[in-house]
Write a structure and sequence with these properties.
The protein is 30% helix and 18% strand. The chain is an alpha/beta fold. It is globular.
């Protein structure tokens, strides 16, 4: 795992976006279809802003998959990740080859999960853009995360810490209105990505970052699995990196 620490969200987002863009361009030189995974949340604001502004991008070759979504909310709900991605990503790239979004207010969730799994099953993910939650979750895989399933997308329960974070960030009026379940890309599917780029901001994520990096790999610290990934790069602002010592950052 490689670390990059920045003074501001703006600088972090620009650097993460430039690496993502370079990875996409490189893949497009040898592939007809480049596959990426796109995350949401406040940690992705700056990165996505800079990514859609990148020049000379082969978007006509790029298909994107949605990382996770709450079950039971519509695509127009203020907290909907479909709404987020449509506004900040899809609508900004008119020549994007394809965007596969999670229809988590489907009347038949198992059928929707099966649809997603069939679409991604044979795809090689060139780069996954993600973050880490305050509780250490990766996507919506809250602790203890399922490290065993080989299904690409799964239905997960959202724990109290995860739901409180969504409320604190202003996506919902109260914790009672935060859904208790979501469709999420699984840990094993995320780990199949050739490259993983993480953007993590703010002091409230510092403990999760430390646990991700220093704890023994365990479902109790879901993002700790990234220690086993061969090409994972973490972009941190100084507050998020504040509990990591110099030895860890320079290794």
């Amino acid at each position: 795992m490689k670390f990059n620490v920045f003074e501001s969200e703006e600088l972090l987002g620009k650097a993460a976006a430039e690496l993502a863009a370079a990875t996409i361009r490189q893949a497009a030189q040898v592939k007809d279809v480049v596959t990426i995974v796109v995350a949401t949340g406040s940690s992705q604001f700056s990165m996505l802003k800079h990514l859609v502004e990148q020049e000379n991008m082969p978007w006509e070759k790029v298909q994107a998959f949605h990382l996770d979504e709450y079950i039971g909310i519509s695509a127009t709900h203020p907290a909907s990740f479909r709404k987020y991605l449509n506004e900040r990503f899809v609508s900004q790239i008119p020549d994007l080859k394809k965007m596969t979004l999670i229809n988590a207010n489907s009347k038949d969730i198992p059928v929707e999960v099966a649809r997603l799994n069939s679409l991604i099953a044979n795809e090689e993910i060139d780069v996954c853009l993600a973050g880490i939650g305050e509780n250490g979750h990766l996507a919506f895989n809250d602790p203890p995360a399922n490290f065993d399933t080989t299904e690409p997308y799964i239905v997960v329960d959202l724990d109290q810490g995860c739901r409180q974070q969504q409320c604190n960030e202003g996506w919902f009026e109260s914790i009672d209105t935060v859904p208790s379940k979501a469709i999420s890309m699984s840990i094993n599917q995320i780990m199949k990505s050739k490259k993983i780029i993480l953007s993590v901001l703010e002091e409230r994520k510092a403990i999760a970052v430390k646990n991700t990096v220093t704890q023994k790999v365990s479902p109790e610290f879901p993002a700790s699995i990234l220690q086993n990934h061969p090409d994972c790069e973490m972009f941190l602002d100084k507050p998020a990196a504040s509990l990591l010592n110099t030895t860890v950052l320079n290794r």
